[in-house]
């Protein structure tokens, strides 16, 4: 299975099919395969989907929404405006390690963790699960930091 993931990741890098001109090639093979899955889902959700965008991911990360307990919040409320710095959970006060893979080598390394945190954080901030496009956009944005 691991060999298959490596081969799929290499094919993705060679063909550049994951996104439109972004840095997805910096994802490991497991995460590249996950991005391909998100891409297929995004195309099913929206036939006009043309690829993931780190810029849309940035906008989503900083989008403020109303929260019944915390007032106006965004992803940056807990993760800070600088993804290379530690954050702090606005509700629990728990310290959050930097999201930026450039300073946190554990960030974006396993699909299990990525899925767990995307699901939890979308619900915490937006009170819903993210779409495949939103997840891919957010991952590209985080990966660029």
Q: Can you walk me through this structure?
A:
This protein has 145 residues and is mainly alpha-helical. 50% of the residues lie in helices and 7% in strands. The chain has six helices and four strands. It has helices spanning 2-15, 29-45, 54-62, 75-79, 111-126, 132-143; strands spanning 65-67, 71-73, 87-88, 95-96. It has a two-stranded antiparallel ribbon with strand order 1-2. A two-stranded antiparallel sheet has the order 3-4. A hairpin with a 6-residue loop joins strand 3 and strand 4. Helix 1 (2-15) crosses helix 2, helix 2 packs antiparallel against helix 6 and helix 3 (54-62) crosses helix 6. It is globular. The two termini are 29 Å apart. The model is unreliable at 4-24 (pLDDT under 50).
Summarize it:
The protein has 145 residues and is mostly helical. The chain contains six helices and four strands, in the order H-H-H-E-E-H-E-E-H-H.
- Average pLDDT: 87
Structure summary, number of beta strands: 4
Taking the alpha carbons of the first and last residues, their distance comes to: 29 Å
- Percentage beta strand: 5-15%
The dominant shape is: globular
Query: Approximately how much helix is present in the residues?
Result: 40-55%
Provide a count of the helices. 6
Poorly predicted spans: 4-24
Query: What is the chain-wise order of helices and strands?
Result: HHHEEHEEHH
Main beta sheet strand tally, sense and closure = 2 strands, antiparallel
The main sheet orders its strands as 1-2
The radius of gyration computed from the alpha-carbon positions, rounded to a whole number of angstroms, is 15 Å
Query: Given the helix and strand composition, which structural class is it?
Result: mainly alpha
